[in-house]
Amino acid sequence: MSSLRRMKKPIAGLVIFTLSAFTIISVPAHAVMINTAEIFKQNQQDLARERINMFLDRSEVRKNLETWGENPNEAKARVDSLTDQEIAEIATRIDQLPAGGGALGTILGLAVLVFIVLLITDILGFTDIFPFVKKVDK
Amino acid sequence: MHFIFGKLRNAFILLLLSIYLTLSGCSGVLLHNWPQSHEYIPDRYVLNSVLFYPQKAYQCGPAALAMALEWSGVPSNPEVLVPEVFTPSRKGSLQSTMIAASRRHGRIAYSVSGPDALLAELSAGHPVIVLQNLGLSWFPAWHYAVVIGYDLPKAVIVLHSGITPRKQIPLRLFENTWARSNYWGLLVLPPSQLPATATEREYISAILGLEKTSQWKAAVEGYETALKRWPDSLLAHIGLGNSYYALSDFESAEKIFRDATCHYPTEGSVFNNLAQVLWKRGKNQEALKAAYKAVKLGGPLANIYQKTLEEIQTWNSMIK
């Protein structure tokens, strides 16, 4: 035991030396490559935002918003402040819109369209219709 | 074939419900219209190059995957795939494990959903693994088969299924059983071939799966295939450079990232990765220049660019 105590200083010295040596030498070993999946995610979010803006540009959507007294341009401006998660949520809904078709498709499409518009206005804090939507703090 | 018994009570309720639905004339399944003939694809087409493996009890998953892998050029058989895809407790193979196993063998796993995509892939010469429910939604009998052809005028689909090779079943019946899995279909392709229905994002996403399983050589091949089809793809450039980097082929990585900086002079991530590669190759001054450029361009990943720059600066000052 006493021999170990005598060794305390040299051991501590050795530990300090090795650890600091490791830190200095290993700095460049941590390559900061940006991996493909990261760019993929980023890209996906940009596309989703673009899709929402395109959706808000559609004439029937603008008409809906205006009927309810909302300014479509203000809505578009607010999309920029949405979180990535909210963007993804809205984009998924837009993807679910039926692509034209018969009379039933048109009615269904209109209903889904109104639902998405309301969902967006809810998230943007214009309306308060769906209890499941968390509101943006203004 | 796999039978998974639901709880008896639930089954009973569902039985009553389905009787009600049947009586009220609602089948619940919307049938897609299979074309009698098609402008872009031949009326009938059957692949002869797909070897058949008969399945053992419950093991349609390994059998289907073995057929697809063999066709794609990976020597395989159902026995060796059983430990990779078969889950004994569920007496079956999960879709996710089928996808993972394809990737582990360096193959692109690409999803094919719906009749149009199925016919397009078949007429391009690609067999498709499909998941069918041969039972009913509340009494499922899940089954994997390999679709190898179709005959539109006769309205049949041709599959290697169970213990029957080149089984012909009516399109309508096939669709009913396929619809219950939400038209789940899987293409297992060598990375040098592009799916007929490929979109840039879906295809790159399939290569990302290869990256995740560290199949870097296959990933390189996949990204090269993607660049042939979409020469301007940022994702394919970065993916190719990163895959070369992972293979420690820094020379090729440098070439790709340099090329990418010409295609995307405002994309910080490209300069960031080029800086790393240059630095790995001992070209410290050039690395520093690229890292500066990335920081100057900024963007959502700006803090990473900053870190790259600082590391290269630290290193350069240390070796001076």
What does this structure look like?
The complex is a heterodimer of chains A (138) and B (320). With 138 residues, chain A is mainly α. Chain A has a domain at 36-124. Chain A is built from 7 helices and no strands. Chain A has helices at residues 2-6, 8-26, 36-57, 59-67, 72-79, 84-95, 103-124. In chain A, α3 (36-57) packs antiparallel against α5 and α3 packs across α6. The longest helix of chain A has 22 residues, at 36-57. The N and C termini of chain A lie far apart (66 Å). In chain A, 14% of the residues are buried. Mean pLDDT of chain A is 73; it is low at 24-29. Chain B has 320 residues and is an alpha+beta fold. Chain B folds into 2 domains: 2-189, Cathepsin B, Chain A (Alpha-Beta Complex), CATH 3.90.70; 214-319, Tetratricopeptide repeat domain (Serine Threonine Protein Phosphatase 5, Tetratricopeptide repeat, Alpha Horseshoe). Chain B is 51% helix and 15% strand. Chain B has helices at residues 8-23, 60-71, 78-85, 95-104, 115-123, 171-179, 200-212, 216-229, 234-246, 250-263, 268-280, 284-297, 302-319, and strands at 2-3, 44-46, 86-87, 92-93, 108-111, 128-133, 141-151, 156-161, 164-170, 185-189. In chain B, the strands form 2 sheets. In chain B, strands 1, 2, 5, 6, 7, 8, 9 and 10 form an 8-stranded antiparallel β-sheet that branches. The relative contact order of chain B is 0.10. The A-B interface holds A 24, 27-28, 30-40, 42-44 and B 201, 204-205, 208, 211-212, 234-235, 238-239, 242, 245, 269, 272-273, 276, 279-280, 300-301, 304, 307-308, 311, 314-315, 318.
